[in-house]
Amino acid sequence: MLSREEVLDIFRRTGVLWEGHFALTSGLHSGRYLQCARVQQFPEENTLLCHELAARFKDRGITTVIGPAIGAIIMAYEMARQLGARCLFTERENGVMTLRRSFTLEPGEKVLVVEDVITTGGSVREVIEVVKQHGAVPVGVGVLVDRSGGRADVGAPVEPLITFDIETYQPGDCPLCRQGVPVVKPGSRQLKP
Ligand SMILES: [Zn+2]
Fold it and tell me: So where does orotate get bound (predicted)?
């Protein structure tokens, strides 16, 4: 079992979690920044996290793990490996989430939907619709991080590895600005692990 602190430690080590002073694309400032995709650079750490999350779905009869391309493909693959299941991914075709590449789901088969991070849950909701359209059963949603504060309603129970709230501030009312901490934009070259 990984504790929350151990998960956060993996996030720091793999460059998922940044701590400092950030100007977000929303225009707001924050002392923390999360880029979940970065953990997928590291098979060993990604496996640790997926092993922990997959354990919560053992003995649920899951035969397929599915996630939205591109961001969730690696995670879906590892989760499927851990659960002895198949791995599929959905893609958008003309803006509509769908199963391509002759991927199929059997009516009644139990499917786990995965995503690295959930905020509003938009794309997860669309994947669940695809699963239902095929007559398969979305038994749950496994996410590494729930940033919705548990509020994302996606049509199946969400099981996060951890929940995470990031405080944001208006630039004119930011304690880090007041302390004179240099502000950086995530994704800029100033950010190096
Ligand atoms: Zn600030």
Answer: 119, 147
